[in-house]
Amino acid sequence: MQTKAFRKTYTRIERITKATCVVKAGNIKYGELAWINDRPAQAISVVNDLVTLQVFGGTEGVSTQSKVIFTGKPPTLEVSDLLAGRFFNALGQPIDNGSPVSGEERIIKGSTVNPVNRAKPNVLLATGIAGIDLNNTLVTGQKIPFFADPDQPYNQVMADVALRAEADKIILGGMGLSNDDFLFFKNTFESAGVLDKIVCFINTSEDPSLERLLIPDMACTAAEYFANDKKEKVLLLLTDMTLYADALATVANKMDQIPSKDSMPGSLYSDLASIYEKAVQFQHGGSITMIAVTTLNEGDITHAIPDNTGYITEGQLYLKRDSDIGKVIVDPFRSLSRLKQNVIGKKTREDHPQVMNALIRLYADAMDAKTKKENGFDLNEYDVRCLNFSKDYAIKLLAVDINISIDEMLETGWELLQKHFERYEVGIKEEFLNKYWKITEEQTA
Question: CB–CB of 272/309 below 8 Å?
Answer without folding.
Answer: yes
